[in-house]
Write a structure and sequence with these properties.
Elements (H helix, E strand, L loop, with lengths): L1 H27 L5 H23 L7 H29 L6 E13 L16 E7 L5 E6 L12 E7 L7 E2 L12
Antiparallel strand pairs: 1-2, 1-4, 2-3, 4-5
């Protein structure tokens, strides 16, 4: 019975984990220092998972294999779930009013992505653009937009973008889809 319950919980957890990451993945690029947020959250999740595993396995006095399985299960659940929960709470509980932050335009790369390829008669247009910006702290960020922002010859121009302070202190860049070609100063 115990193994069946763990198997069912594991299956439900995997489905939930996939859904959580799928709904949050689009916002990872818009969060400054996202790697640091995810690594810290994974470490905290691992610690919480080990403590939870030790708590739940305390009744299995004689069976060390079951204790190890319970601790490892809780550890991996913590390492996998806490980062996405931290990213979601950072975004959902962010400050309401955005502030303007200056970024330096580095380059823009058009991406041509069609699921079934390009036909000969079809006009060759980019599906979306990857815009690379410098935050000023020797850190660069990659944003995704359906519109072209600037020409690559405009490298070094300053762009003002709205930024929200996230709940955990990691800024979220709001990508306006109505950015016009002369967005730089």
């Amino acid at each position: 019975m115990h193994n069946k319950l763990i198997g069912i919980l594991g299956g439900v957890a995997l489905i939930m984990l996939g859904w959580l990451y799928a709904t949050e993945y689009a916002y990872f690029d818009n969060t400054l220092n996202i790697k640091k947020l995810l690594l810290i959250a994974a470490a905290i999740g691992g610690g919480i998972g080990i403590l939870a595993g030790l708590f739940f396995s305390r009744t299995d006095k004689g069976d060390n294999l079951t204790r190890i399985q319970t601790v490892l299960f809780c550890f991996f659940i913590g390492v996998l779930f806490v980062p996405v929960i931290a990213a979601k709470t950072n975004r959902y509980l962010a400050e309401e009013t955005p502030r303007i932050k200056q970024f330096t335009f580095l380059r823009q790369v058009p991406v041509y992505s069609k699921p079934f390829g390009q036909t000969k008669m079809e006009k060759f247009t980019p599906t979306y653009f990857l815009i690379y910006l410098n935050t000023g702290n020797s850190e660069s960020i990659r944003l995704k937009s359906t519109k072209e922002w600037l020409q690559n010859s405009d490298k070094g121009k300053t762009i003002d973008l709205p930024v929200k302070k996230g709940y955990w202190g990691y800024d979220i860049v709001l990508v306006p889809e109505n950015v016009i070609k002369d967005a730089g100063k």
